[in-house]
Amino acid sequence: MKRKLILVIVLLCVSSLMASMAYNTATVTNAAELKITNTNTALLALVPLGGIGNLDQTAYLDGGDLVFEFGRGNNPWFGGDQNYGLQRNSVYEWFNGGASNTGMFAIQNRSAEHIRLSIKVTGVPAGVTIETNQSMGDGGNGWQNATGSFVVLPRTLTSGSTCDIGVRITVGDTAVNGLSNMEVVIKAEAIA
Question: What single DSSP character describes residue 157?
């Protein structure tokens, strides 16, 4: 009887050990699909806006990707289409404040989700501040500093909707002349 009990205990221990050793890792392969596309046709699409303030194409598409050239002009009297630059002690604004196409570019939510948007601009030179203003068919929500760190835009973007983004650049007297390579980063977070 004692021998049977010990045998049962040993078998239980061995089976527990074997169950825990069933696998430490597993690799499961499933079919998946990923489509890489241009900025203006993506799930979260960014498109330039035309009209007043954008006739010089400060925001434009290059091969389907949105490009910003702050300081760009297209006046044939002064050399034509080129990036002239922005001078110190100045403020430039690409925001009309009207009911439609008010900003420099638009963000389109092509997903089924409602999203919260955040924006930041990195690589901004010292002495320069970049602010954004979100418009959804009205005069906007006021300017928010997007220089270097994410700022959450005040309105959520429902499925299938679009918002315009205005940009204001303040160039202080300490800014140094030269071309700066910056990045405009848009972050979308699905919300309930």
Answer: B
